[in-house]
Amino acid sequence: MIVELISVGTEILMGNIVNTNAAYLAEQCVELGLCCYYQSVVGDNADRLSETLQTALNRSDIVIMSGGLGPTQDDLTKEVAAKVCGAELYMHEASRDAIKSYFTKIGKQPTDNNWKQAMMPQGAIILPNDNGTAPGCIIEKDGKAVILLPGPPNELIPMFENSVVPYVKSKLPSIICSKTVKICGIGESRAEDMISDLIAKQDNPTIATYAKTGEVHIRVSAKAEDEKTAKNLIKPVVKELKQRFGNYIYTTQEDMSLEKVVVDLLIGNDMNIATVESCTGGMLAARLINVPGVSDTFKSGFVTYSNKAKRKCVGVKKKTLEKYGAVSKQTAEEMVRGMRTVNKADVVVATTGIAGPDGGTPQKPVGLVYIACLVGDKVTVKEYHFAGNRMKVRENAVTSALNLVRECILEYYSEKTFGKK
Amino acid sequence: MIVELISVGTEILMGNIVNTNAAYLAEQCVELGLCCYYQSVVGDNADRLSETLQTALNRSDIVIMSGGLGPTQDDLTKEVAAKVCGAELYMHEASRDAIKSYFTKIGKQPTDNNWKQAMMPQGAIILPNDNGTAPGCIIEKDGKAVILLPGPPNELIPMFENSVVPYVKSKLPSIICSKTVKICGIGESRAEDMISDLIAKQDNPTIATYAKTGEVHIRVSAKAEDEKTAKNLIKPVVKELKQRFGNYIYTTQEDMSLEKVVVDLLIGNDMNIATVESCTGGMLAARLINVPGVSDTFKSGFVTYSNKAKRKCVGVKKKTLEKYGAVSKQTAEEMVRGMRTVNKADVVVATTGIAGPDGGTPQKPVGLVYIACLVGDKVTVKEYHFAGNRMKVRENAVTSALNLVRECILEYYSEKTFGKK
Fold first, then answer.
1. Do A175-251 and A258-418 show the same overall fold?
2. What is residue B222's three-state secondary structure?
């Protein structure tokens, strides 16, 4: 079943607000197993609204329109949708009463134009709004449905969950399940190369790769009559991906981030962590601390951007800085060892690099970053070359640092279990 | 001149990412004086892409397509746009070389499919990409233009600014100039209230407010035959805004960020800064360090998220933490004073707050943040209440901390100049 989204509103069209409603609705529709091929944004203009809705009805089964249900003359969505579907508007008494009680509740008087919001298309299913004055509705026509929702997210989201989800589910013959395999440490092109045979022969389930900063996500989606069958279709593909990508996969859980995986790994092994950051300048600590409940696990973080700070805070030797430079394997190693001396953290991770735009040389170009990780008494230092502007280099460095911590902890425990290689 | 935006990508269509590119492009187009009536989102599908582009070309003068310029088989935007405009693709040598050097720079090997990105439509204006491998292009046809941009915002934004803006300006009969007045410390509603009379009578120049995280931007745009006339129309309005908002304005320069203003203020007064962060966990240091050349000015930063770290790193007293709590005026003050003892920085700023989702109480709800700033021997501590999720609370805290540093330095020098009040 095909769904199409039409967001109505000049504010979105002019870029004053970001269209988060569309992202929310799209994600929910995918989860319901609907296919979404088109989204549109159009202003509060009767002709353009009408044209956009007609086009959508020609190619989709369900059209979800959001916005333009307000009380003012600008708000035309309901009027246009009713006209396109050939339905007259009438005063819906229950909605009128709801608007009345809403105003009583907030201690204000409705204005005359508020009653316009209770005018509903004949034959439509009315969707009550507990969080505002604009009821939504579903207009069914020739086996298709036009669903009208209010624009404010705090009204749209509960209305979608409470009224639209059950309606759509009752109409669906099959469902869709998907699973995302999240990979860190290899780029999108290489990841796709490694599974080009699977992509070439994909049908059901489908396989798609998505590039994120420093990560690649592979989504496997299957369509079936019921959830169990869909999940069984996904399973062997995910198993194959696991075999091909091994430890590059950091999670197969939808709501799991790389920093959450690292924090869980630390908590699970009763370890704490400390950060020493030069080029990332606090971004690494900030990402770890974005995980709620990290408090006991995050020992402390230092931002040692200047050479002086590197020497003073974590005791990097003057000689090392002079001989090898601040951006070097040696400095990175002394940063983690120095931090261990300062606060005895179980895991210490350090970054030092040239984020640009200036400061690069032929030997040490912009984008060169060393990341060191100390677990147990073993220091691992890796050299990276990142492309892009200052922020991109730093974001990539943070993701790679998190991934290095993950790899080093995994290695530490595998060596402890299986003996040193 | 009418512009239309087509965002290409399954990720947007499926709600995996929010379409911030469309908001950015829409805002920029409005600023250029273009009218935007439609935005669409469509997946990586040749038929649907082609249909959407044809519809757009029928009703608009400029079509900006973003996304789908990647190296994979999925990426079809360029192929489809070339076909719709009747242009063959050819190997563009300069783009091929650019891709080669890009990979050399990052120390990796291009894969075979990367060369696809150097295939460009015959006759198109090529837009170089300094931040990625996908060049953009402008295909002109029958007096209309199809502009193709890469999807990642860090590639799209510089390409738009460097290449698309000058192109569009060259096509416009009149020019639009604008000036942005950037404000920190008051909300959008209040800012709008303070200039409601100006907004009500606006014509040319127009005045619009934009809410950013912790900031409000007021954009004044004038349309005229030439730049000088437009600038003369803007001048008195900006002067009026300066009178009304005074020190709330941190800049009127387009490319100036709050952190850059703070760093310039520090450098200009030969001062250095140190940060001590609890709830912001490194984000404040990270924003300061995003300013190139901050090295000598940024003394060092500590991330002291746990109580232990607050005691150990900056000597917050156990008694203070027990009596007033980690999130208190007193702890914030001891954090800055402790850091001064540690590294003698001229300016020290500290954050401590409850970012949520847990940890709130009726007395100290989620969103409560204390920020302290020490300049000279004076500590200023302010209490803030921020709304939104964990990340939003932390982002607001960072912006407010930067603004507090700015205010405190300005006050320090005004007191030094005019004597203590």
1. no
2. strand
**Does an H or E element contain A196, and which?**
helix A196-200
In terms of CA atoms, which chain B residue is nearest residue A15? B23
A284 within 8 A of A339, measured Cβ to Cβ: no
| pLDDT at A56 > cutoff 70 | yes
Q: Any CB–CB contact under 8 A between B322 and chain A?
A: no
Domain ranges of chain B: 2-171, 175-251, 258-418
Q: Does the domain spanning A2-171 belong to CATH 3.40.980.10?
A: yes
pLDDT tens readout for residues A193-246: 999 999 889 889 989 887 788 899 998 989 888 889 999 999 999 999 999 999
Confidence band of B421 (pLDDT split at 50, 70, 90): very low
Q: Find out whether A219 and A179 touch, Cβ atoms under 8 Å.
A: yes
Q: Classify B175-251 by CATH class.
A: alpha beta
CATH number for the segment(s) B258-418: 3.90.950.20
Chain B interface test: which of A2, A8, A28, A37 (most B C-beta within 10 Å):
A37
- Its ipTM equals 0.77
Give, to the nearest 10 degrees, the angle between helix B329-343 and helix B307-314. 40
CB of A167 within 8 Å of any CB in chain B?
Answer: no
Q: Do A22 and B19 touch (CB under 8 A)?
A: yes
The rounded distance, in Å, linking the Cα atoms of B398 and B350 is 10
Distance CA B366, CA A106 (A): 25
Please give, rounded to a whole number of angstroms, the shortest distance from the CA of A85 to a CA of chain B: 22
What pTM was estimated for this model as a whole?
Answer: 0.78
- Please state the length of chain A: 421
Whether A8 and A43 have beta carbons less than 8 Å apart is answered as yes
What span, in angstroms and rounded, lies between the C-alpha atoms of A357 and A187? 23
Using a CB-CB distance cutoff of 8 angstroms, which residues of chain A are in contact with residue B106? 367, 385-387
Sequence-distant (6+) residues with CB within 8 A of A150 are A66, A67, A69, A70, A129, A132, A134, A136, A156, A159
The mean pLDDT value for A316-340 works out to: 98
> Residue B348 above 50 pLDDT?
yes
| C-alpha–C-alpha distance, residues B150 and B135, integer Å | 7
pLDDT tens per residue, range B283-340: 999 999 999 889 889 999 999 999 999 999 999 999 999 999 999 999 999 999 999 9
* B272 and B296 Cβ atoms separated by less than 8 Å: yes
Instruction: Report chain B's terminal Cα–Cα distance, integer Å.
Output: 56
Indicate the burial class of A323 (C-beta count within 10 angstroms; 0-12, 13-18, 19 or more).
exposed
Q: Which value, to the nearest 10 degrees, does the dihedral of the CA atoms of residues B79, B80, B83, B87 take?
A: -50
Is A275 in Cβ contact with B277 (below 8 Å)? Answer: no
pLDDT band at A421 (very low <50, low <70, confident <90, very high): very low
To which H or E segment does residue B394 belong? helix B390-418
pLDDT confidence of residue A67? 94
- A260: part of which helix (H) or strand (E)? helix A258-268
pLDDT per residue as tens digits for the range A352-372 = 999 988 889 999 999 999 999
Distance CA A183, CA A252 (A): 9
B204 close to A (CB below 8 A): no
Cα four-point dihedral sign B5, B8, B11, B14: positive
